[in-house]
Amino acid sequence: MASGVADLGKRLPASASRPSSRKKMSSWSQKIWSDWGIATSEPDEISRDPNVLWTTRCCRIKSKTGGIPQELYQSSLPQRFLRRMAQLGVPHAIISDLYGLHFPDVWMPFYDTAPSDLDIAQRQTLGNLIGRQARQRGLTLLSFYNNSPVMSRPYFEILSYSGLQIVYHTRLPENI
To answer: Residue 167 phi/psi, 5° resolution?
Structure first.
Protein backbone atom coordinates (compact mmCIF):
# COMPACT_ATOMS: atom_id res chain seq x y z
CA MET A 1 0.00 0.00 0.00
CA ALA A 2 1.31 3.44 -0.87
CA SER A 3 2.18 5.96 1.79
CA GLY A 4 -0.20 8.77 2.62
CA VAL A 5 -3.33 6.65 2.93
CA ALA A 6 -3.42 6.35 6.72
CA ASP A 7 -5.83 9.27 7.05
CA LEU A 8 -8.32 7.99 4.47
CA GLY A 9 -11.06 7.53 7.05
CA LYS A 10 -11.12 11.19 8.01
CA ARG A 11 -13.25 12.40 5.09
CA LEU A 12 -14.73 9.30 3.52
CA PRO A 13 -18.45 8.63 3.90
CA ALA A 14 -19.32 6.40 6.85
CA SER A 15 -20.56 3.72 4.46
CA ALA A 16 -17.30 3.55 2.48
CA SER A 17 -15.72 0.12 2.77
CA ARG A 18 -12.55 0.18 4.79
CA PRO A 19 -11.22 -2.01 7.61
CA SER A 20 -13.13 -0.21 10.36
CA SER A 21 -16.43 -0.32 8.47
CA ARG A 22 -19.17 -2.34 10.19
CA LYS A 23 -20.83 -3.50 7.01
CA LYS A 24 -19.47 -6.62 5.38
CA MET A 25 -16.99 -5.86 2.62
CA SER A 26 -16.96 -7.83 -0.61
CA SER A 27 -13.78 -9.77 -1.32
CA TRP A 28 -12.80 -7.36 -4.11
CA SER A 29 -13.40 -4.37 -1.81
CA GLN A 30 -11.13 -5.97 0.78
CA LYS A 31 -8.48 -6.62 -1.86
CA ILE A 32 -8.62 -3.04 -3.16
CA TRP A 33 -8.26 -1.71 0.38
CA SER A 34 -5.46 -4.07 1.43
CA ASP A 35 -3.43 -3.72 -1.77
CA TRP A 36 -3.84 -0.01 -2.50
CA GLY A 37 -5.60 1.72 0.41
CA ILE A 38 -8.56 2.58 -1.82
CA ALA A 39 -12.02 2.60 -0.25
CA THR A 40 -15.21 1.61 -2.05
CA SER A 41 -18.57 3.33 -1.79
CA GLU A 42 -21.81 3.93 -3.59
CA PRO A 43 -21.33 7.08 -5.70
CA ASP A 44 -24.38 8.86 -4.29
CA GLU A 45 -22.87 8.59 -0.80
CA ILE A 46 -20.04 10.96 -1.69
CA SER A 47 -21.08 14.47 -0.74
CA ARG A 48 -21.00 17.46 -3.04
CA ASP A 49 -17.81 18.47 -1.25
CA PRO A 50 -15.98 20.97 -3.50
CA ASN A 51 -12.73 19.05 -2.81
CA VAL A 52 -13.95 15.94 -4.68
CA LEU A 53 -12.66 15.25 -8.18
CA TRP A 54 -14.72 12.70 -10.12
CA THR A 55 -12.62 10.59 -12.53
CA THR A 56 -12.68 7.60 -14.82
CA ARG A 57 -10.12 5.89 -17.00
CA CYS A 58 -9.18 6.75 -20.54
CA CYS A 59 -9.85 4.32 -23.38
CA ARG A 60 -8.14 2.71 -26.32
CA ILE A 61 -10.37 4.32 -28.95
CA LYS A 62 -9.28 7.93 -29.38
CA SER A 63 -9.63 10.63 -32.00
CA LYS A 64 -6.38 10.82 -34.00
CA THR A 65 -6.68 14.61 -34.02
CA GLY A 66 -6.59 15.01 -30.22
CA GLY A 67 -8.97 17.26 -28.37
CA ILE A 68 -10.70 18.01 -25.11
CA PRO A 69 -11.81 14.79 -23.32
CA GLN A 70 -15.24 14.76 -24.97
CA GLU A 71 -13.57 14.80 -28.41
CA LEU A 72 -10.52 12.64 -27.69
CA TYR A 73 -12.00 9.63 -25.83
CA GLN A 74 -14.42 7.85 -28.15
CA SER A 75 -15.49 4.76 -26.12
CA SER A 76 -18.85 4.58 -24.40
CA LEU A 77 -17.54 4.48 -20.80
CA PRO A 78 -15.73 7.85 -20.84
CA GLN A 79 -18.45 9.41 -23.00
CA ARG A 80 -21.18 8.31 -20.55
CA PHE A 81 -19.05 9.55 -17.63
CA LEU A 82 -18.41 12.94 -19.24
CA ARG A 83 -22.11 13.47 -20.02
CA ARG A 84 -23.16 12.58 -16.45
CA MET A 85 -20.53 14.77 -14.79
CA ALA A 86 -21.48 17.72 -17.01
CA GLN A 87 -25.14 17.21 -16.04
CA LEU A 88 -24.21 17.18 -12.35
CA GLY A 89 -21.86 20.15 -12.71
CA VAL A 90 -19.07 18.66 -10.61
CA PRO A 91 -15.27 18.82 -11.06
CA HIS A 92 -14.17 15.89 -13.20
CA ALA A 93 -11.34 14.57 -15.37
CA ILE A 94 -10.26 11.53 -17.35
CA ILE A 95 -7.20 9.67 -16.09
CA SER A 96 -4.83 9.67 -19.05
CA ASP A 97 -2.10 7.03 -19.16
CA LEU A 98 0.25 9.69 -20.52
CA TYR A 99 -0.87 13.12 -19.29
CA GLY A 100 -2.28 12.37 -15.83
CA LEU A 101 -5.57 14.22 -15.34
CA HIS A 102 -7.25 15.39 -18.52
CA PHE A 103 -9.69 18.10 -17.48
CA PRO A 104 -12.71 19.05 -19.65
CA ASP A 105 -11.27 22.44 -20.58
CA VAL A 106 -7.85 21.19 -21.72
CA TRP A 107 -6.94 20.13 -25.26
CA MET A 108 -4.47 17.22 -25.50
CA PRO A 109 -2.85 15.65 -28.56
CA PHE A 110 -3.54 12.04 -29.54
CA TYR A 111 -1.55 9.39 -27.69
CA ASP A 112 -1.45 5.62 -27.76
CA THR A 113 -0.31 4.53 -24.31
CA ALA A 114 -1.94 1.79 -22.27
CA PRO A 115 -1.41 1.27 -18.53
CA SER A 116 0.21 -2.08 -19.34
CA ASP A 117 2.90 -0.17 -21.28
CA LEU A 118 4.03 1.60 -18.10
CA ASP A 119 6.72 0.14 -15.84
CA ILE A 120 6.55 0.63 -12.06
CA ALA A 121 8.63 3.83 -12.11
CA GLN A 122 6.35 5.33 -14.80
CA ARG A 123 3.23 4.36 -12.81
CA GLN A 124 4.68 6.04 -9.72
CA THR A 125 5.54 9.16 -11.72
CA LEU A 126 2.04 9.24 -13.24
CA GLY A 127 0.43 8.81 -9.81
CA ASN A 128 2.53 11.64 -8.39
CA LEU A 129 1.56 13.83 -11.37
CA ILE A 130 -2.14 13.10 -10.80
CA GLY A 131 -1.80 14.09 -7.15
CA ARG A 132 -0.08 17.37 -8.06
CA GLN A 133 -2.63 18.19 -10.77
CA ALA A 134 -5.58 17.63 -8.43
CA ARG A 135 -4.05 19.59 -5.56
CA GLN A 136 -3.26 22.51 -7.93
CA ARG A 137 -7.02 22.81 -8.39
CA GLY A 138 -7.71 22.47 -4.66
CA LEU A 139 -9.04 18.90 -4.96
CA THR A 140 -7.96 16.33 -2.35
CA LEU A 141 -10.50 13.49 -2.61
CA LEU A 142 -10.58 11.55 -5.87
CA SER A 143 -13.67 9.54 -6.80
CA PHE A 144 -12.71 6.90 -9.41
CA TYR A 145 -15.41 5.27 -11.55
CA ASN A 146 -14.93 2.16 -13.64
CA ASN A 147 -17.48 -0.57 -14.23
CA SER A 148 -15.00 -3.38 -13.53
CA PRO A 149 -12.69 -3.77 -10.52
CA VAL A 150 -10.54 -6.18 -12.54
CA MET A 151 -10.08 -3.67 -15.37
CA SER A 152 -9.30 -0.99 -12.77
CA ARG A 153 -6.26 -2.72 -11.30
CA PRO A 154 -3.58 -0.68 -13.12
CA TYR A 155 -5.42 2.51 -12.20
CA PHE A 156 -5.63 1.49 -8.53
CA GLU A 157 -1.87 1.10 -8.53
CA ILE A 158 -1.30 4.44 -10.29
CA LEU A 159 -3.73 6.27 -8.01
CA SER A 160 -2.17 4.78 -4.88
CA TYR A 161 0.91 6.90 -5.63
CA SER A 162 -1.08 10.14 -5.88
CA GLY A 163 -1.14 10.91 -2.17
CA LEU A 164 -4.87 11.68 -2.53
CA GLN A 165 -7.76 10.00 -0.76
CA ILE A 166 -9.36 7.64 -3.29
CA VAL A 167 -12.87 6.16 -3.36
CA TYR A 168 -13.82 3.64 -6.07
CA HIS A 169 -17.29 3.17 -7.60
CA THR A 170 -18.65 0.69 -10.14
CA ARG A 171 -21.52 2.91 -11.19
CA LEU A 172 -22.13 6.57 -11.87
CA PRO A 173 -23.98 8.76 -9.35
CA GLU A 174 -27.68 9.45 -9.76
CA ASN A 175 -27.58 12.53 -7.54
CA ILE A 176 -24.96 14.49 -5.73
So the answer is: -125, 130
